[in-house]
Amino acid sequence: MDGAYDLDTMMGYLGDFGKYQMWQFTLHILSAVIAGLHMLSLVTVAAVPEHRCEIPDVDVNHTMANLSDSDLSLYLPKLPIGDFDSCSLLNTTTNDSYRCDSWVYDDTYYQTSRAIEWSFVCDNRWMGAVAQSMYMFGVFTGAVTLGNMADRFGRKPVFCWSALLQLVIGVAVAFTPDYYSFLALRYLYGIFGSAGSYIPGFVLTMELVGPSKRSMCGVAFQAAFACGIMLVAGWGALIKDRQLLQVVYGLHSLVLIGHFWLMDESPRWLWANGRARESVEIVKKALKMNGSPIDLETAEFVSKGTAESRTKTEDSAGILDLFKTPNLRMKTLNVCLNWFANSLVYYGLSLSTGKLSGDPFLILFVMGLVELPSYVLTVYLMDRMGRRSLTALNMILGGVCCIIAANLTMGSTESTACVVVGKFLIASSFAIIYNYSAELFPTVIRNSALGIGAMCARTSGALTPLITLLDSFDPTLPSIIFAVIAMISGFLTLFLPETLNKPMPQSIQDGENFGKGDTFFTTCCKKDKDEVEEVVTVKPPTSEQMEPLGVNR
Fold first, then answer.
1. At 52, phi and psi to the nearest 5?
2. Which of 18, 126, 342, 521 matches a 20 to 30 Å C-alpha distance to 266?
3. Partners of residue 52 on adjacent β-strands
4. Which of 208, 259, 258, 252 is nearest to 33 (CA)?
């Protein structure tokens, strides 16, 4: 066998996407489906149905009586916008209003939910928001700690143990008897339910497939996440008991338990961490499954990998290395803002389904479904427009949609359409940033980079339910906040380097050197300069060439 005995040569023999990569990719992507399902499970398990104050001697057995508007006006005050106040009752003697302490709920779509049991309404709205925020804070913790652990101890062990723990916690959270133990389990659920398997699974795929398939595979992860959201809606429509519903959600993690035996560690991670022999053995196994006739010279590759390991000075590379050098630091901060903004708008739009008119399960399903054509278009455009321009465009236009929706009547067809288009655009940019981050940062800290990006995303995800509470002051305020942050981040994305058709950096030094001086603006200036130089160097036409068409000599 001719050629250098290094990692890139060995992975090149493997090809971009053979049978082995397809098999491992299938195992990896299951984590995305489960992560999407866990992430938005509270939308149905703790749904807040249409409700109003319980009217004494009228609503029997805590059941909403079927009253006309004229009857309701005898008991309920009206808000300035003309709707009945769902948090107050009228004193039928003095006609003064007062806050109520019990409510009745419309059971058209939900018979039971945590919100009904613990009254996540009116002055207690914060309880539902905090419950969702606790999950996101858990994902935040998992992204930081488990991301760093995956760089130090391997992608596979973090993936597999997280899968086991999310199964246990996902079922246990259905049986919590009180609100505060529910919050504690929601926090643990977030650590392992979304961050623990999803991020290592994504990184495993990015490190295994070839450059020509990274865009497709990376975006497929986001499509799988959207399928998880659709599963939330589907099961929610079928199962009306909130406890059984949560158990069903939790049991989905069973599909990841077999990964202990079926899934392989990343050959790139093994090589980078001085375990060249294991790396070579996995690639040999992959070559055999792919039907390749290539027989790797194990001793030569192991010798080269061991030598690189001895001379390597980055064995302790970790999350702090992202901030030690100027170019990596600027890229990291920019990417962190991008993750923060994408997540803020993505979950802001996803959690707004309860405020849209119509069947909440159908709306949630459509909000997941609309992401799929977005990802198909993203795959097509990513390798033509590049990551940088497409991300910036999607975020800026997504912000514009938020502003338009905020100024339309809530629940109207036009407002719903703007929300759906905004979700389409933000889903696309959110998908790209996963790929983009994996390609911007070197192998030795790639999982840490994705981890800190996910950490920022979950910070904004945790803040999103709390920001939506600001609609008590001004209904348009949450959407305006989402829009401004998205547009600022979209503009700053133009200062990141393009990664299209570029080799992935391996070492810290590679990561620092990668993309220096490459921004959208320098690229445009360079193109303009090249075009000017091309015009200047063109020879003037001869008299023969200048003759008009049709002139006979």
1. -155, 170
2. 342
3. 104
4. 252
Do residues 458 and 139 lie in contact, with contact meaning Cβ atoms separated by under 8 Å? yes
* CA distance readout (Å), 528 to 86, 420, 501, 533, 538: 61, 37, 22, 9, 16
Confidence of residue 408 (pLDDT cuts 50, 70, 90): confident
Q: Is the pLDDT of residue 312 over 60?
A: no
Distance of CA 280 to the CA centre of its chain: 33
Q: Quick check: helix, strand or coil at residue 51?
A: strand
| Long-range Cβ contact pairs of 78-86 (< 8 A, separation 24 or more) | 84/52, 86/51, 86/52, 86/53, 86/121, 86/122
What is the DSSP pairing of strand 97-99 with strand 103-105? unpaired
In this prediction, residue 544 has a pLDDT band, given cuts at 50, 70 and 90, of very low
Tell me the CA distances in angstroms from 63 to 55, 70, 72, 338, 354, one per residue in order: 10, 19, 15, 46, 21
Query: pTM value?
Result: 0.76
Judge whether 92 and 75 are in contact, CB under 8 Å: yes
Tokens of 16: 């971009």
Of 203, 141, 192, 196, the residue nearest 446 (C-alpha): 203
Cβ neighbours of residue 165 closer than 8 Å, sequence gap 6 or more = 188, 192, 196
For the segment 496-527, what is each residue's pLDDT rounded down to a tens digit? 888 887 777 877 887 787 777 777 777 777 66
Residue 446 — very low, low, confident or very high, per pLDDT cuts 50/70/90? Answer: confident
Domains and CATH numbers, the chain: 7-47+119-493 (1.20.1250.20), 51-105 (no CATH)
User: Could you give the dihedral angle defined by the CA atoms of residues 86, 464, 346 and 435, in that order, rounded to the nearest 10 degrees?
Assistant: -160
Does residue 546 register a pLDDT over 50? no
For residue 547, give the 3-state DSSP assignment.
coil
Q: Three-state secondary structure along 296-365?
A: CCHHHHHHHHHHHHHHCCCCCCCHHHHCCCHHHHHHHHHHHHHHHHHHHHHHHHHHHHHHCCCCHHHHHH
pLDDT for residue 540: 52
Distance of CA 185 to the CA centre of its chain: 22
**Distances, alpha carbon 177 to alpha carbons 66, 173, 192, 285, 458, in Å:** 32, 9, 21, 49, 27
The arithmetic mean of pLDDT across residues 341-348, rounded, is: 86
